Amino acid sequence: MIGCSLGAQFRREFVTKLFGMMLASAVSIVLVLIIMAAAAIGCAYAFTLPVAALALAFAPAGMAR
Are 55 and 37 spatial neighbours (Cβ–Cβ below 8 Å)? Predict the structure, then answer.
């Protein structure tokens, strides 16, 4: 219900202006995931630990669940 009431208040002009923000957010998320994966792989090889375990340990909040 909260999502429906918020969505009903958006106007077309407001949503079209958000495209740049959505693009910037998508790019930053991809960059953070690449950096996280590189750090996890580097630490895994440095400390001879499983890559999968460190990938979950380095994951952003909520991804490991």
Answer: yes
Which tens digit of pLDDT belongs to each residue from 26-65? Answer: 999 999 989 999 999 999 999 999 999 898 888 877 565 5
Q: Which of 24, 34, 30 is nearest to 58 (CA)?
A: 34
Q: CA dist 51 to 11, 13, 35, 59, 62, Å?
A: 46, 45, 14, 12, 18
CB 40 within 8 Å of CB 58: yes
On whether the CB atoms of residues 51 and 29 are closer than 8 A, the answer is no
This prediction has a pTM of 0.66
